[in-house]
Amino acid sequence: MLLEKIIDNICWLLSKIPLECMELHFMQMALLAVLLITPLAAAAGVQVVNFRMAFFADTIGHSAFAGAALGLILLGSQGPAWSMPLLAMLIGLGVMWLKRSSEIASDTAIGILFAFIVSGGLLLTAHNHELSHLAQRFIFGDVLLIDYQDIVLLMILFILHTLFMICNGNRMLLIAIDEDLARAHRIKSAWYNYLYISLLALIVIVCVKAVGVLLVSALLVVPAAAARNLTTKAGMMVWYASLCGLLCGILGLLLSVHEKINTASGALIVMLNCIVFAVSILIKKLRKTAV
Question: pTM for the complete prediction?
Fold first, then answer.
């Protein structure tokens, strides 16, 4: 497969990094995943912050093990590859539909779907040891277990999200600021909302495998929140968030496998992002003081 050859060539380039750990193939795959996941999640997180939907990632994340369980029950070992993204998209579209059709606030709509998907996932996994083990894997995640299929999906999502924001970034910003004004400018806000929510749901599902359900929302929200402290320009916010996520991702992965640290990669990546966020608050206050 062409994409697998491209991935192998990139891994070969990463193996030339003068670090002992980078001689291992799974570390090369993990670093490639981080190079794709962290800027992608951070850039997507800017829109999440603008729409005040930070809780959304948690809801989609918790649909991961419910989707995997359904896939295993209905379709066998290959089921989760299809059931997880499909269920995530359905939940995301359900959140948006509830918000738009019933005039429910977005956090309430998300809370309702969150309760539904978590209870459903627990019911599916409660009496099955194999499914319970699967649920634990999704709760904590592990970027070191990323495989070729995950990398290919990440590449596709990275391209799709980049193209979507290049073509529709200004429209999405206007919708976030004032949806009525966007409609007055003949922007089909419902269409763009549904499309972006579907794309975001897929991004969240892929991120779950890397950092787990417990940390997936942080991967989106924290770099975006840090960027918001550093700039008020929408375009620069995306760049700052992506750079923050990328640097913290690379540093977190490499430090996590160091023999003196040896800790969970996802947790360390998120902790470094939180430290950057704290620094961004300080920078913002210093700027205000200087003015």
Answer: 0.87
Closest CA to 161 of 57, 238, 230: 238
DSSP code of 24? S
**CA angle (139, 133, 201) in 5-degree steps:** 40
Task: List the structure tokens of 60.
Answer: 């989609």
Mean of pLDDT values over 23-52: 89
Q: Which residues contact 164 (CB under 8 A, 6 or more apart)?
A: 195, 196, 199
What does the alpha-carbon distance between residue 141 and residue 211 come to, in Å, rounded to a whole number? 5
| Contact by Cβ (8 Å): 217, 63 | no
The band of 255, judged by pLDDT with boundaries at 50, 70 and 90, is very high
Of the candidates 206, 199, 195, the one whose C-alpha atom is nearest the C-alpha of residue 80 is 206
Q: What angle do CA 273, 244, 56 make, to 5 degrees?
A: 65
Q: Which of 246, 255, 253, 256 has its CA nearest to residue 276?
A: 246
